From TrEMBL:
Keyword annotations of the record: Glycosyltransferase, Transferase
Keyword Glycosyltransferase appears in the UniProt entry: yes
Classification via InterPro entries: UDP_glucos_trans
Lineage: superkingdom: Eukaryota
Organism encoding this protein: Gossypium mustelinum (Cotton)
Listed name of the protein: Uncharacterized protein
Similarity comment: family membership: Belongs to the UDP-glycosyltransferase family.
Pfam families, per the entry: UDPGT
An example molecular function term from Gene Ontology annotations: UDP-glucosyltransferase activity
Length: 144
C-alpha cells in the first residue's frame, strides 16, 4: 500500500462533495492528529509538507519521503536541505501554473506525486532515506 500524507490544518477547506468522491479510497481527518502516529504507519510513503523543521525531521526519522511545498519563513531553506543536501524529497514547483504564479495545476502536482511514490527517483530516495533516518535519530539521542 502507498499513502501520501497531506496536512495543511486551518489553511484549507475541503470542497463540498470531495469526501464523497474519495469514499472507500481515502480519508479526510479534520481534527488535530499527532502526525508522528501517521508518519510511522507502514503504508505512509510520502508527506506533502510545508517543510517546517520539526515536520521534516519527523518525516525523515520515520523514513517517509517529502514532497516539499514551503510557504513562509525558513521553510524554503528547510526544503532546499531536504531536497538538495539530504536527497530524500522533491520540491513542489509552484510554476506548474504559468497563469497564476505561486499556484499549482493539479496535473503538475499529480505528476510530482507519482514520481515520488512510483518513479525511479522515488525509489532511489527511498533507499537514501533509510540512511539519513539513522543519522537523524543519532543526532536526537541524549548523550548524557
Amino acid at each position: 500500500c502507498s499513502i501520501l500524507y497531506v496536512a495543511f490544518c486551518s489553511q484549507v477547506e475541503v470542497s463540498e462533495g470531495f469526501e464523497e468522491q474519495i469514499e472507500g479510497r481515502s480519508t479526510v481527518v479534520k481534527q488535530w492528529v499527532d502526525k508522528r502516529q501517521i508518519l510511522k504507519h507502514q503504508c505512509v510513503e510520502g508527506f506533502l509538507s510545508h517543510c517546517g523543521w520539526n515536520s521534516a525531521l519527523e518525516s525523515i526519522c520515520y523514513r517517509v519521503l517529502i514532497l516539499a511545498w514551503p510557504m513562509i519563513a525558513e521553510q524554503a531553506l528547510n526544503a532546499r536541505t531536504v531536497v538538495e543536501e539530504f536527497k530524500v524529497g522533491r520540491r513542489v514547483e509552484s510554476t506548474c501554473n504559468e497563469m497564476k504564479p505561486g499556484f499549482l495545476k493539479w496535473e503538475g502536482l499529480l505528476k510530482m506525486v507519482k514520481e515520488l511514490m512510483e518513479g525511479v527517483m522515488g525509489k532511489q530516495m527511498r533507499k537514501r532515506v533509510k540512511d539519513v533516518a539513522e543519522l537523524a535519530k543519532m543526532t536526537m539521542v541524549d548523550s548524557s
